[in-house]
Structures are given as structure tokens and as C-alpha cells.
From TrEMBL:
<dbReference type="InterPro" id="IPR004165">
    <property type="entry name" value="CoA_trans_fam_I"/>
</dbReference>
<dbReference type="Pfam" id="PF01144">
    <property type="entry name" value="CoA_trans"/>
</dbReference>
<comment type="similarity">
    <text>Belongs to the 3-oxoacid CoA-transferase subunit B family.</text>
</comment>
<dbReference type="GO" id="GO:0047569">
    <property type="term" value="F:3-oxoadipate CoA-transferase activity"/>
</dbReference>
<protein>
    <submittedName>
        <fullName>3-oxoadipate CoA-transferase subunit B</fullName>
        <ecNumber>2.8.3.6</ecNumber>
    </submittedName>
</protein>
<dbReference type="InterPro" id="IPR004164">
    <property type="entry name" value="CoA_transf_AS"/>
</dbReference>
<keyword id="KW-0808">Transferase</keyword>
<dbReference type="InterPro" id="IPR012791">
    <property type="entry name" value="3-oxoacid_CoA-transf_B"/>
</dbReference>
<dbReference type="InterPro" id="IPR037171">
    <property type="entry name" value="NagB/RpiA_transferase-like"/>
</dbReference>
Amino acid sequence: MTEPLSLNRQQIAQLVARDIPEGAAVNLGIGMPTLVSDYLPDDREILLHSENGILGMGPAATGDAVDPDLINASRVAVTLIPGASITEHTISFAMMRGGHLDYSILGGFQVAANGDLANWMTDAPDAIPAIGGAMDLAVGARNVLVMMEHTTKSGEPKLLEACAYPLTAAGVVDTVYTNWAIVDVKNGRFVLRSMVAGMTLDALQRSTGARLWVEGGVETIVLDASGRACIQS
């Protein structure tokens, strides 16, 4: 039997980037979400916000474009698009809290079927030791997208009936993008939108801690000739 495809961090970011609509104002959170800036379609005008005070962030900087004073939330050197602005934290957080963001893209440890998000904890070796601005981003944006692995390294589900970790925010998640699937949160349940080539619904369900519902068809995630993740037409 062919092993199912497992997306890497860049390929998950490619799927998220394709779903961001024209004209959206988007915050990219710490970690995997910052990769999304590298894959946004060139024909869409999308305004990227970074918690540390950038509005109009471009892709990651390379070569002579690297400025150590110009970094994103993951401390990676970035570029600016024409017309970008730099602010201090009070203005940046006012954008986040004031409902000015269309999308907040965050990493996650756990997501519950009702949309609860847990993306911080203090007793894990790779954890951020405080909630930071994640709470503000999760409740302030109109749409919340979460990027994460479908299971832990030991195979435990991260999509659950209820989060076991401290909550970042309650009932906020709209869609989860994992290495195996795209899952929407609708009416208190997980609705499967897409899954990777070679994966079966039964196998995906066994790795998910809550029921996966199917409404209509389920799209297939494949890799094109260049290794880019895309949805099979």
C-alpha cells in the first residue's frame, strides 16, 4: 500500500497562501505562519502585519536585502513592500485588538471541535514561555487559521473534542491546515475539506481526536512537478 503524502512546513504554508483573498489584511504569527509570506500569489494585493510593528511586510530577506533591524515575529529578516510602515507596539496591538485584521494565521498545539485554540504552554521544551500577543490575535481577527502537525511526535491527536492545554481563546478557529488535511470548523464540529493523496478517511479519523464530518466531496492535496502543494482539480 502506498504511504500517504505528508506535507512539510513549506507545503502547508503554500496551501494557506492560496486561500488568502485579494485585499486581505493578514497577521502572520510566530513559527510556521511566517512562511506564508514567501508563497502569496503575485497577482493578489495582500497587506501583511507583524506583531512587532510592521504593516506592509514582504517575503523573507536574502543576500544584501538582509537588515538585522528588520525582522518578523519569528526573528527572521524580512523585506518591506512599497508604502510599508513601522510602528511601536501600542499601535500594532491596537490594529490587532481593534478588529482591523481580516486574517490571523497562528501555530497551534491543540484545536477543539468547537474552535477552541491552545497554542501556548509552559512545561514543554519547545514552548513559548508566555501567551504573548496570540490571545489578542485570536480574538481580534475576523478569521483565524491554524497551521500545525496533525499529531504529536508520539502520534497523539492534536485535533480534539476538547483542548487539554490552557486555552489561548475560545471558539475562534475557522480552519486548520495540517501535514495531512485541511479541516474547517463549522457549527461546533470538524468538517473535512481536503486530505493528502494516499490518505483514507478511516486512517485520518484514527489520528483525529474528534469526529470528522464530510459535507459534499473531499478535495485531494497533491504535489506538482516542482514539489509545490496544490489541490487536485
